[in-house]
């Protein structure tokens, strides 16, 4: 039978507005605008004050070098002459170096990639959670992630974790697609993303592999044999991509590449496995002694958490005990003229009322802290010479105002510090309880109860479902992800690296979004499961009120407000559950529940707009960041890592690491001009006895300065024989000496080495002082009383 075709209809006019605002059929009308609003909010939070960004010294020096040659770009060289690499894989700096090549070398150009990575992370999280648990869950998850303080601080900080976090989210999204379809291609893509994440964060990226593998193994709709085969192929791809840089560097002859920092054997594998992994688990009895790691073989021990007994070797008298909480206090115990341009730095132990320190407010805790009166800090002078204001009470292990500011590093400041609450070390707690300590939990752990209850309910309530059940697979993914990193950080040393917690914030946010929607459906269906929602809200509000209460000097209204909101939400839900309140009361209870669980972290997150509590170079926002202080003086918001504190940058000192703007002091400029004028045919402008001495010259001008000893000051680069050969062959003429490992002292001992005894750098320094001619300060217009001395070796 003939059919009459329908007359063609005129094509619908599609305007830009209709395209942009078109809502997919499976989403409510508010979904897209809500996502755009949160995306815009993320961009504002992450980019706020980007024009006042500060350089992350050490990393920024490498970026400067990486912009000058593609060889430096590939290796992640610290200095422009490609003498020595960073003590990390360079992948996380590649976006920063590309940005600097495009926009020029500016602090904001180095911050911009982290902002972009943060916004993309939010969008990828939304996509993954929406496919797993629906639009409502995705929006709640994005809100929770956006308002987690450490997430705000993380994506403003020029460290490894922004790129690392984005890569793991992309890996989760690809695994989700693979698990739904049983196809190999997206699973291999997930493996690639984990490998790229490895370039940013090394072996920490592999901690997510059990979560990804378990999801695919449990839920992919293909036979078991094929699932295992696919996983084997993905594992091979992960290994190849992860090891690509390490293998390439290993295969290149040592004479044709920079020395690999953090090692005694110039091995990239030693740097990855020993220095940056095994050393962090020394508390478990794991030894890296056979890996060629600097800290393992040179007496430095593990990567100590700050305040955990690593400070005696760098600032305190030789042989002084390393009591918990005194590490950064010992850092402040410097005698006059020992390093940089410091003056009186006599330290004394004290009991610190850890209320409001450089790293913020902490409840009362006792610790040992060095107190010192500082003149000019060689590692950064506080604005206007006021340091952190009068006598500040530091909360975080003596580093707060005493070890750094008052111990000879910020002019005119005195301070006291104490251990962090509830345990040794000032950055919170050490050992298995550190994740629950206020210093870390206040940055990322507000939703611990909600996430845990959501995970339990999600797994229990989906029992008996088909193996391929998507909802259960999501809970497996996020629950395993959370468990792996929670255990890894509990067992390993994280020190004050708050930004590590960003990878914890991701699964907590996802579990909160998926769990709340699951519990809301159960609540509406009545039955015994309906009690889970009010219980979870009450537990989370109580925990949040407890955390907020640990910081009584910061937003004192917050704890009672959270408690009242939580109580109101739970009561409303209970009343509505009994049938006497109706749907309107239930919705009111739901709204109050969201407010109760999100108001505390959001109150911290918005402190990024507050110069007093703005984010730090360690990723912290709020009173556990760098801004909190007490006293009448002006505030030094500088961190040694040069993070965005929202304040004025510290003035550069003699070879310090606290520069925010990358400019040289007048004295440094004179020294640079003198050595440049008298350089002749030398390959290096001059050598320094510590990376932080070389840092300002590299950062400001890209000068060819040779840093000795690497980050820890203990890497055997160059050897004494190699150094003498550089002098003998005319490749090096001048050497700038100061204090051993100037400007970093105990900090390097805690994170990369330390311990007593002679090192290649000290032996070279002794040879220089005995065999080379001292250049009078008057020859280049320098300060005759400076602790730094320039020598001419030919």
Automatic annotation (TrEMBL):
Residues 298-316, 367-378, 386-430, 620-634, 642-659 have a biased composition (Gly residues). The chain crosses the membrane at residues 30-48, 132-155, 205-224, 231-252, 445-461, 473-492, 498-519, 531-548, 554-576, 585-606. The keyword Transmembrane applies. Residues 89-245 form the Glycosyltransferase RgtA/B/C/D-like domain. Residues 317-366 have a biased composition (Low complexity). The keyword Cell membrane applies. Residues 293-430, 620-662 are annotated as: Disordered. InterPro entries: LipidA_mod_glycosyltrf_83, RgtA/B/C-like, YkcA/B-like_C. It comes from the Bacteria. Residues 671-770 form the Putative mannosyltransferase YkcA/B-like C-terminal domain. It is found in: Cell membrane. It is a multi-pass membrane protein. It holds the Pfam family PMT_2. Keywords: Cell membrane, Glycosyltransferase, Membrane, Transferase, Transmembrane, Transmembrane helix. PANTHER family: MANNOSYLTRANSFERASE YKCB-RELATED, UNDECAPRENYL PHOSPHATE-ALPHA-4-AMINO-4-DEOXY-L-ARABINOSE ARABINOSYL TRANSFERASE. This is Glycosyltransferase family 39 protein. It comes from Streptomyces orinoci (Streptoverticillium orinoci).
């Amino acid at each position: 039978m003939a059919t009459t075709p329908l007359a063609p209809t005129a094509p619908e006019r599609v305007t830009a507005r209709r395209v942009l605002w078109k809502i997919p059929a499976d989403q409510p009308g508010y979904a897209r605008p809500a996502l755009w609003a949160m995306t815009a909010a993320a961009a504002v939070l992450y980019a706020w004050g980007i024009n006042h960004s500060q350089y992350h010294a050490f990393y920024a020096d490498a970026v400067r070098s990486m912009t000058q040659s593609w060889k430096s770009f590939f290796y992640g060289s610290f200095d422009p002459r490609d003498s020595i690499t960073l003590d990390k894989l360079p992948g996380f700096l590649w976006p920063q170096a590309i940005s600097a090549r495009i926009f020029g070398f500016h602090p904001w150009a180095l911050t911009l990639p982290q902002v972009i990575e943060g916004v993309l992370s939010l969008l990828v999280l939304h996509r993954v959670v929406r496919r797993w648990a629906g639009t409502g869950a995705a929006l709640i998850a994005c809100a929770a992630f956006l308002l987690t303080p450490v997430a705000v601080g993380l994506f403003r900080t020029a460290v490894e974790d922004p790129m690392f976090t984005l890569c793991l989210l992309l890996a989760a999204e690809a695994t989700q697609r693979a698990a739904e379809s049983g196809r190999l291609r997206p699973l291999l893509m997930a493996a690639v993303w984990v490998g790229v994440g490895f370039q940013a964060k090394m072996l920490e990226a592999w901690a997510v592999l059990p979560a990804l593998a378990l999801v695919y193994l449990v839920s992919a709709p293909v036979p078991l044999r094929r699932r295992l085969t696919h996983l084997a192929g993905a594992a091979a791809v992960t290994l190849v991509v992860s090891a690509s840089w390490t293998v390439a560097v290993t295969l290149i002859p040592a004479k044709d590449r920079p020395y690999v920092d953090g090692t005694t054997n110039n091995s990239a594998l030693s740097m990855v496995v020993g220095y940056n992994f095994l050393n962090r688990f020394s508390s478990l009895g794991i030894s890296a002694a056979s890996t060629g790691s600097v800290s393992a073989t040179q007496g430095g021990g593990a990567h100590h958490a700050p305040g955990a007994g690593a400070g005696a070797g760098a600032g305190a008298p030789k042989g002084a005990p390393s009591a918990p909480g005194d590490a950064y206090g010992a850092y402040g115990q410097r005698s006059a003229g020992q390093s940089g341009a410091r003056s009186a730095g006599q330290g004394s132990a004290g009991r610190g009322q850890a209320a409001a320190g450089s790293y913020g407010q902490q409840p009362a805790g006792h610790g040992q802290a060095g107190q010192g009166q500082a003149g000019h800090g060689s590692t950064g002078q506080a604005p206007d010479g006021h340091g952190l204001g009068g006598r500040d009470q530091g909360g975080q292990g003596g580093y707060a105002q005493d070890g750094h500011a008052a111990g000879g590093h910020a002019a005119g400041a005195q301070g006291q510090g104490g251990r962090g609450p509830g345990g040794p070390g000032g950055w919170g707690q050490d050992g298995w309880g550190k994740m629950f300590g206020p210093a870390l939990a206040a940055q990322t752990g507000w939703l611990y109860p909600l996430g845990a209850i959501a995970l339990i309910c999600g797994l229990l309530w989906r029992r008996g479902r088909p193996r391929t059940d998507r909802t259960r697979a999501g809970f497996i993914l996020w629950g395993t992800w959370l468990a792996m990193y929670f255990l890894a950080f509990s067992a390993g040393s994280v020190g004050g690296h708050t930004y590590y917690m960003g990878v914890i914030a991701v699964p907590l946010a996802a579990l909160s979004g998926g769990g709340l929607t699951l519990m809301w459906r159960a609540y509406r269906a009545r039955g015994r499961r309906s009690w889970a929602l009010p219980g979870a809200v009450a537990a989370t509000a109580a925990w949040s009120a407890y955390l907020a209460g640990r910081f009584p000097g910061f937003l004192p209204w917050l704890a009672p407000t959270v408690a009242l909101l939580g109580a109101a939400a739970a009561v409303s839900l209970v009343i509505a559950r009994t049938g006497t309140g109706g749907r309107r009361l239930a919705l009111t209870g739901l709204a109050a529940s969201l407010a109760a669980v999100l108001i505390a972290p959001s109150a911290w997150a918005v402190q990024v707009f507050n110069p007093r509590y703005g984010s730090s170079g360690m990723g912290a926002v709020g009173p556990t960041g760098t801004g909190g202080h007490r006293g009448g003086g002006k505030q030094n918001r500088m961190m040694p890592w040069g993070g965005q504190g929202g304040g004025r940058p510290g003035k550069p000192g003699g070879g310090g690491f606290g520069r925010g703007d990358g400019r040289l002091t007048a004295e440094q400029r004179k020294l640079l001009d003198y050595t440049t004028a008298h350089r002749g045919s030398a390959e290096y402008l001059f050598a320094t006895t510590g990376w932080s001495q070389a840092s300002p010259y590299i950062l400001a001008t890209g000068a060819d300065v040779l840093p000795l000893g690497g980050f820890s000051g203990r890497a055997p680069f160059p050897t004494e024989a190699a150094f003498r050969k550089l002098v003998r062959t005319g490749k090096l003429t001048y050497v700038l000496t100061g204090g051993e490992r100037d400007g970093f002292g105990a900090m390097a001992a805690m994170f990369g080495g330390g311990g007593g005894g002679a090192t290649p750098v000290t032996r070279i320094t002794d040879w220089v002082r005995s065999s080379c001619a001292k250049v009078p300060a008057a020859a280049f217009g320098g300060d005759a009383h400076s602790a730094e001395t320039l020598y001419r070796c030919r």
